[in-house]
Design a protein that fits this description.
By secondary structure, the protein is mainly α. It has one domain. The protein is about 65% helix and about 5% strand. It has helices at about 5-15, 20-30, 35-50, 55-65, 75-90, 95-105, 115-125; strands at about 35, 70-75. The model has no long low-confidence stretch (mean pLDDT about 95).
Length: about 130
């Protein structure tokens, strides 16, 4: 299994180093690559805090990347829902991810976070 790290993915999304972006593209075209949830969290954090990119733009970039052929995530449906929550709420990425895992895989989420509890309660009412 070939795993991407955050810097590799950031170069592809940002295209701030053309040579590195091409290397990432070549790696993806040459076979399946896997992106773990923790790497996506780091990428989202860097895009938000360092590059000051809007949440909706981040969500769109992550979704476009994870939907590429040869790119696998731990659970694409969870990532799609997570990014929807991320773009529509003020919750951080990890809380959105937890809520998405609750929705799609039925995981019980133990938290003191009131906003996360509220989102989960809305899910459970639907």
């Amino acid at each position: 299994m070939r795993l991407l790290d955050a810097n590799y993915l950031l170069r592809f999304i940002m295209h701030d180093n053309l040579e590195m972006a091409i290397e990432v593209r070549t790696a993806i075209l040459s076979g399946t690559v896997h992106v773990q949830d923790a790497v996506l969290e780091e990428v989202v954090h860097v895009l938000k805090r360092v590059y000051k990119i809007d949440r909706t733009v981040i969500a769109d970039a992550i979704l476009k990347f994870t939907e590429l052929e040869n790119v696998e995530t731990e659970n694409q449906t969870v990532i799609e829902t997570c990014m929807q929550y991320y773009s529509e709420t003020s919750l951080d990425f990890v809380d959105c991810l937890l809520a998405a895992y609750h929705l799609h895989e039925g995981h019980e989420i133990l938290t003191f976070d009131k906003k996360l509890k509220k989102l989960i309660a809305r899910q459970d009412e639907s």
